[in-house]
Amino acid sequence: MTTWITNAWYVAGWDAEIDRTPIARTICGVPVMLYRKLDRSVVAMRDACPHRMLPLSMGLREGDSIRCTYHGLKLGPDGVAEEMPLKTDRVNKSICAETFVVAEKHRFVWIWVGEKALADAALIPDLWPCSAEGWAFDGGYYHVAADYRLMIDNLMDLTHETHVHAGSIGQPELMEAPIEARTEGDRAYITRWMPGVDAPPFWRGALKKDGPVDRWQICEFVAPSSVMIDVGVAPVGAGATLENHDQGVRGMVVDCMTPETETTMHYFWGMARSFDIDDAGFTARFKRSQGGVFAEDKLILEAQQRAILANPDLKLNAYNIDQGGIRARRIIARLMQPIQPTAFQKAAE
Hints:
Naphthalene 1,2-dioxygenase Alpha Subunit, Chain A, domain 1, 2Fe-2S, VanA_C_cat, 349 residues, elongated, Rieske Iron-sulfur Protein, alpha+beta, metal-binding, 4-stranded antiparallel sheet, 17 strands, EC 1.14.13.82, 2 domains
């Protein structure tokens, strides 16, 4: 039994990191090789030569095909053999490497490692700020040695900012402001409104002025494993509310956690913002600053995972602040359950 939903879209990489040179990445326990064809479309193939299972990511690109560097078997981008190790042998078209459905959206390359017939591009999580007019978006990647659900817990409980990110986005008011939790279908939400507080260093710099602000945080878990966090500040008196808050500086933290194994993940992070969108220098500095914040989370979560493995007789406890993570985990657990046949289907069988 795995800890993830298999029939779902996961981020395999940023659009910029997947190019003509093959890269290897394990997605939901499946070793995958990814590269771009000459037309720039992406190929995703099981990273194992069907001959002697040398990783195909070690292979040589020839046109849109890949040649294994062990015995020279050549496979097309559809995974089907094009040349045998001995060129005098007739090509056996039944020799194939498994391929996977991929799609590009919101600056990410998405992969479906489950049943191909169920791979509907309409099911790709709607990370709308990453592609919306009037927003700028960029981010980075970390490999994290922790269960991907621990990162979801972390992002759906921002009280940790007070202690983990005290020098950038944390402030004591995070521990004092009430939170509201709700679940809507396959999404979970945590909202927090902090009126009349001092802006933390990052947001004070983004607003470019001092003085009390109204601050908001709206965490949204999107199945199977993404979290978007609507964050920002507006000067007190500007008219911002929890429902309408474009009066100050607003950003959307975008996080996609792709399971690698039961205790490791690929963490794709970024920030979309609707202010200073034409300032490329600010975008680069912003990315560097955000990367530092998430490096602090990486340190905490990897230590937490080590402690979990070292204490198998103990279990995680949940307090009131953990409502978001609990709701997200319940959604994941529900979607992992196999679909039960209806009475009509049973009768037909």
